[in-house]
Design brief:
Keywords: Amino-acid transport, ATP-binding, Cell membrane, Membrane, Nucleotide-binding, Transport. By secondary structure, the chain is α/β, with parallel strands linked by helices. The chain has a domain at 119-185. Helix content is 38%, strand content 25%. The chain has 10 helices and 12 strands. It has helices at 12-19, 61-68, 100-107, 125-135, 141-154, 170-182, 200-216, 228-234, 252-257, 262-273; strands at 23-32, 35-45, 50-54, 76-81, 84-85, 88-91, 94-97, 110-113, 188-192, 220-224, 237-242, 245-250. The strands form 3 sheets. The chain has a 6-stranded mixed β-sheet, sandwiched between helices. Strands 2-1-4-5 form a 4-stranded antiparallel β-sheet, with helices on one face. A two-stranded antiparallel sheet has the order 6-7. A hairpin with a 2-residue loop joins strand 4 and strand 5. Helix 4 packs parallel to helix 6 (170-182), helix 5 (141-154) crosses helix 6 and helix 6 (170-182) packs parallel to helix 7. It starts with 11 loop residues before the first helix and ends with a helix.
């Protein structure tokens, strides 16, 4: 028996669960015709980790998010969520698609906030937020509505529940989109240049909301942004992409202060000079 000061060793199953990445890219390839966007891409994101992808436009960053959201199809390789294949698995030595039911179940663990808000214009703000929790997660209307009101309060839009998206500013629409993604209680939150379509004066309010989400939840985040101060503030790890490859990765203080690769130095020099 262990002494009072000793802790029992974790079981092999518990150790494996703790070490299983929430997201894993393994030998991922994505082509659009003859254009190879991603090639032999391997990386992992741990549970509760916030990873930011930086790099020039066209380097494959948004494609990565769209693959995790299954909005694009893999050309080759595998993506795993909690150790389970997201779109393809290896069976009898062959790479084959997983079932639609399996994929749909994994998708419910993933939320995404897009550049262009993607709200339903014919629905009110409240209806936009409760639609998926009711029809995808099977929650009661009462539960979904209560959760939606709580989220609207968190994003500072308690008085806009019955407004339509077209009557809101861009910053307000993006805050609704954040609330809608969080209403699904996602294990993984994907953020795709969420401030790029906003007027400069409202960028800060949206980023502050996301900072609070990062500080107050353990949701795993995979982020694409050109807002370097935001990336520095919220990230556990920053990955520099160029030409569909990871050029280098590391903690934000290392990447932003002492990058090793000349491509990272050139990119950050240009981006930070323009801010």
């Amino acid at each position: 028996m262990p002494t009072p000061t000793e802790q029992p060793s974790p079981t092999p199953a518990a150790t494996a669960a703790a070490e299983t990445p929430v997201i894993e890219f393994r030998d991922v390839e994505k082509r659009f015709g003859d254009n190879v966007v991603l090639k032999d891409l391997d990386f992992t994101v741990g549970r509760g980790e916030r990873v930011t992808l930086i790099g020039p436009s066209g380097s494959g960053k948004t494609t990565i998010l769209r693959l995790v959201m299954t909005l694009e199809e893999l050309t080759g390789g595998y993506i795993f969520v909690d150790g389970e294949p997201l779109t393809h698995e290896e069976r009898d030595g062959r790479r084959v698609p997983v079932s639609k039911k399996h994929q749909k179940n994994l998708r419910t663990r993933i939320g995404m906030v897009f550049q262009q808000f993607n709200l339903f214009p014919n629905m009110t703000v409240l209806e936009n937020i409760v639609e998926a929790p009711i029809h995808v997660l099977g929650r009661s209307k009462q539960e979904a509505v209560a959760k939606a009101h709580d989220l609207l309060e968190q994003v500072g839009l308690s008085d806009k529940a019955h407004a339509h998206p077209t009557s809101l500013s861009g910053g307000q629409q993006q805050r609704v989109a954040i609330a809608r993604a969080l209403a699904m209680d996602p294990e993984i939150l994907l953020l795709d240049e969420v401030t790029s379509a906003l007027d400069p004066e409202v960028v800060g309010e949206v980023l502050n909301i996301l900072r609070r989400v990062a500080e107050t939840t353990d949701v795993t985040m995979l982020i694409v942004t050109h807002e370097m101060s935001f990336a520095r503030d919220v990230s556990h790890k920053v990955m520099m992409f160029d030409g569909g490859h990871v050029v280098e990765s590391g903690p934000p203080e290392k990447i932003f202060s002492e990058p090793d690769h000349d491509r990272t130095k050139a990119f950050l020099g240009a981006v930070l000079r323009d801010t």
